[in-house]
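Components:
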Amino acid sequence: MKSLAELQALRDEMKGKIGIRHDEKDNIRIVVGMATCGIAAGARPVLQALTEEVEKRKLDNVTIAQTGCIGICQYEPVVEIYEGNKDKVTYVKMTPEKMVRIINDHIVNGNIINEFVIGNNAK
Amino acid sequence: MEDISLNVLDIAENSVRAKATLIGIKIHENRQEDYLSISISDNGCGMSSEQVNAVTDPFYTTRTTRKVGLGVPFFKMAAEMSGGSFRINSVLNEGTAVRADFGLSHVDRMPLGDMPATMVTLIQCNPEIDFLYTHQLDEEDFVLDTREIREILEGVPLNEPKVAIFLKSYLDEQISRLYQDNPDISPT
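Structure:
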């Protein structure tokens, strides 16, 4: 059974790490669309898969955030990747499985998965 | 939306956009009286009475990217389809309260869904906002207050992946325990 006492242990483990700052150019921001369209299309499990994979791979330089309606509702769930000075990458029709692949291929290994990018999915 | 927990997530996002600092979400499942009531209340910017009337119209929205705002209309429709009711109360500069009541055993009542996933999504994506979550089953309840979590964490942000993952397991366990410890004794 989990208890809030376990949270204290987590706090102690995390406190030491908070002070470490990352170089601005290292930081990667991953944004998940969480408006009505995104939620209806399945954004919540995508966010959960993202969180679990980031934790599993210990990616300290990744920030996870949400956004509202981007205006491309038919392509939801949508995930945008912001990395330093690079162009924003917009992945569409996301699923938890695709999210895990993107973390591994794109975030960890630097290879954008073109198949999932908006440009290649336009109707 | 496939289930109530996704509607709750959607409506609570409105509270976030209204710049609320405290959002209360209450689920009350009353098996004796056969209802499932959902409340989402906030201390955000509130709405005028004209806006309150307009908000249930699917063609009314404050966003500029699209001409429809479906969140509230969807939730209202879901409640009414199950023989329930829906209302919104709001006061400008004070906040808004959304209440949806569902007929618990009604054949068209959509499932409650994964409330832990909804709560963790809200907490993780809005680490500066406080959430008070109450899940009541008949007379017993479980409460999660992020102010208490914040105190324990002593500065560790609520959007740390480890914290989000912990909270999901914690909520899953506490809520199943609530149901396991309180088997249904209402007459069929």
